[in-house]
Every structure is written in C-alpha cells, then in structure tokens.
Amino acid sequence: MASPPARPALRARYDRRQEEVVEKAAHMFARRGYDGTTVSDLAEEIGIAAGGLYHYFGSKEQLLIRICDQLMEPLLAEARELRESDGAPGEQLRDLVRLWVTHVVAHRDHMLVFQQERHVIERGPQWRAVRASRKAFERLVEDALEEAADRLALPDRRLALSALLGMVNHTAQWYRPRGRLTPADVADGYVDLLLDPPTHDPR
Amino acid sequence: MASPPARPALRARYDRRQEEVVEKAAHMFARRGYDGTTVSDLAEEIGIAAGGLYHYFGSKEQLLIRICDQLMEPLLAEARELRESDGAPGEQLRDLVRLWVTHVVAHRDHMLVFQQERHVIERGPQWRAVRASRKAFERLVEDALEEAADRLALPDRRLALSALLGMVNHTAQWYRPRGRLTPADVADGYVDLLLDPPTHDPR
DNA sequence: CAGAGTACCGAACGGTCATTCGAACTCCGA
DNA sequence: TCGGAGTTCGAATGACCGTTCGGTACTCTG
Asked: Which terminal residue of chain B has fewer beta carbons within 10 Å of its beta carbon, N or C?
C-alpha cells in the first residue's frame, strides 16, 4: 500500500476512491462471503487490475477490518452522544434502539459481513479495536435496559439484553428498504415487546 | 469417497467414525470458520492423514451440507410431530419455541456454522434441500404465531416472526450450558415477550 | 490361516489466490 | 510544455489447499 498523496487536491480523489472500494467490498463480501470473494473479483468490480487495489489497501484483511470499523465506530459515537443528551431516562432505550436499527439498516452489507466473519473478529490482536467497540456498545444497551428495568416485561435483564441483540442484529437479514416498515417502526416494535404495556390503559 | 462397507459388522464402525468426523468438523468450522479450517486441520484433529478423510466424505462441501442437514432435518421432523399432536392451539407456540431453543442449544456448533455460512447455503443447487428445510420450519413457526394471533403483543405478525427468529437463532451465540438458565427458561422468556400478559391478572 | 474387503497412509498434483514489483501511463502544477 | 508525483498495469511468485491414487497394513470371515 502506498501512502496517501500529499497534495490536497489529489488527496480528495484518493479518499473517494478508497471509500468506493470499501463500499463495493462490503457489498461483495456480504453476498459471496469474505473468502468467497477474490481480490480479482473485487478489482474487476471497481474497474482496475487486481494489483492496483493494493494502492489503497495494505491487505485483504485490512479491508475487512476497515469495513467493521466503519460500522461500529459511528454507531458507538452516536450512541454515546445520545446517552449524554438529556431526555427522560426511560425513553433513552427507545431512542437508542431507533438509532441502532436505523444504523443496521443503513449499513446492511457492513452488518452482514460483521456477523458472517465473527470467527475472524474474535481472534487476532488486529481486531482488538473492533471487539472493544462492540463490547462498549453492548454495554450502553445494557445500561439503557437497566434504567428501564422497572418497565421491563422480562424479569431477567441478561436475557432481555440477549433477546434485543438477537432481534436487532437479525434485522439486517430480512429488512428491505422498500418495504412497508420504516426503521423506526421496527425499532418501536422491538421496544414494545420488551416493555410492559402502559399502565394507564384501562381494560 | 469409498462406498460404505457391505459387511454389517464393519458398517457400524464406519457410521460411528463418520459421525465423529461430522461432529468434530462442526466444532472446528464454528470456531475457525469453514474456509479457515483446512482438511488437514480436521484430519489432524481426528487423528488420521488428510487423504484418509475422503474415505468418509466426497468433499469438504458435502461435509458442510451434512452438518446443516443434521441440524435442520430432525428439527423440522420434531416440529411437524408437535404440530400434529393435540394440545391447546395457543400453547403450541410455547412448545414449539421450547423445542427449537433446546435444539439450537444442543447443536450450537451446527447452528453457528449454519448461520456463518449463510451466503454459501443461499447459492447452488446442492443446497436446495437445506434451504427447503429452513423455509418449511419457518413456515411452521409462522403458523404457530398465527394461531396465537389474538394474544400477540405485536400487531405486525411478520415483525413478530422476524423478532422471534432473531432471538432464537442468536441464542447459539451466547448460551452456555453451565449457566443458570435452562433452554426452557430461555424459550419461555422469548414467548413471554411475544405474548401479552395474561388477562386474569388483577392489578 | 488364507484372502477378500476395509481403513489409512503419504506423496504428488493441479489449481487458486493474495501479494509484489518494476514499468508504463496519466495528469497536476509550474 | 516539462517534470515528477500519483495511478494503474500485468506478469510473476510463492504459498497453500483440496483432492487423487497406488500401495500397505489391518481385520473380519470362513
């Protein structure tokens, strides 16, 4: 991998191209799998020779790391921001899940890759940052659940957390943008499952 | 791949060995990924030379197919049996989810492989049977949800189905047999989330 | 114990793939 | 228009891996 160009005018183009590679790679990895996609396949999709890709990335694995980073880092940042904002503590859970589902849906390919390559992510020191991001985010969700504990439909909070993680992550596998549900609809559905029905409802 | 031995006395040993290969393969595939596990790795784990494995399996992919088949076929069969049994129609959902979670937990490695290699399963005619099993099973779950529709906490049944699929499948990723929750506990938790609280409860 | 059927070995093969690298080309800045 | 930084090509490389196959040792059967 070459270092990025020093001249600012060229730097922009370089960054744009690099971004294109990440995006196309995420799409192909999601469809055919990481190992099922050769560097040549990817290069052909971009429109350059295989060797040319290494101008933008040091290795195939670094590309994969970048995909996962781009997924987790902004999500974590936004979630932290939300957490520090004021707002009814009980309603933070709903906002968090909305943010989360929206993110998953907006980066479906990244998410599918992230899930499919779990075994790679779990091993190796080069994945430490990605693992830390995921852990930190899950911790935020856990805290939000804790704050809504008195309204939780499930006595076991660990189980509630696992259930929520399962539901939201699985969303990447079935959600279609042109469907009838918005990401917020989906998120609200999940939260409604987790929380007891409002008490002001007389039967 | 050689044909199985004709002599019955040897057939038993052959079958046992084959089963051992499937089990060990599922375990390694779950941990290191399908592509991350070489045939030599697997052979070493079994304790024979790489070539020797081909005595029991035609190819690495056939082995993967077998793993997925062994996961889905018994599950589908048991689910169908349950469905045809008598029992309160409303309670079939709970029994089905219990059966399902128990199965997922008992075959965690198979399940993890099944999820991780989704992109392979979706392609190619040799995977048709596996895809059909999964589809049929999901259909059974859908029907059970339908029957419990009047007690569902979520108006949107498709969303409820997706949520349930997400929760249960995700269970393979966190459940530990030595934990404090039994599979039935977990299953009941999921069902409790999906169903409205019982109406006979006076506040 | 003989010999057929069975299990496994171990070396080799063919193919694929990530990665490297020097040359060639493009295009910006002066 | 020129020089050089930046970009891409294309061929080569080296490693790895799934699979094959002929031979060997083992085991059950009669």
From this structure: C
Can you give the length of chain A in residues?
Answer: 203
Dihedral angle over CA of B172, B174, B180, B182, nearest 10: -10
Q: Is the CB of B51 under 7 A from strand C?
A: yes
Spanning CA of B66 to C1' of D12, the rounded length in angstroms is: 40
d(CA A194, CA A161): 10
Alpha carbon distance B72, B86 (integer Å): 23
At B18, list the tokens. Answer: 């084959």
Burial of A182 (0-12, 13-18, 19+ CB in 10 A): middle
Contacts 24+ apart (CB under 8 A), A88-94: A89/A147, A89/A148, A90/A147, A90/A148, A90/A151, A92/A144, A92/A147, A92/A148, A93/A144, A93/A145, A93/A147, A93/A148, A93/A191, A93/A194, A93/A195, A94/A187, A94/A188, A94/A191
- The per-residue pLDDT string of chain A (203 residues; one tens digit each, 9 = 90 and over) reads 777 787 788 899 999 999 999 999 999 999 999 999 999 999 999 999 999 999 999 999 999 999 999 999 999 999 999 999 877 777 899 999 999 999 999 999 999 999 999 999 999 999 999 999 999 999 999 999 999 999 999 999 999 999 999 999 999 999 999 999 999 999 999 999 999 876 544 43
Q: Which residue of A has its CA nearest to B168?
A: A166
Q: Are A28 and A46 in contact (CB under 8 A)?
A: no
Nearest to A31 by CA among A113, A106, A101, A118: A113
Q: Which amino acid is at A120?
A: V
- Locate tokens 């599918």: which residue? A112
φ, ψ of residue A201 in degrees (nearest 5): -85, 110
User: Taking the complete model, does pTM exceed 0.85, yes or no?
Assistant: yes
A33 to chain B: which residues are within 8 Å by CB?
35, 117, 119-120
A126 CA: distance to closest CA in chain B (Å) = 16
Measured between alpha carbons, how far is A75 from A140 in angstroms, rounded to an integer? 11
The answer to whether the Cβ–Cβ distance between A165 and B165 falls below 8 Å is: no
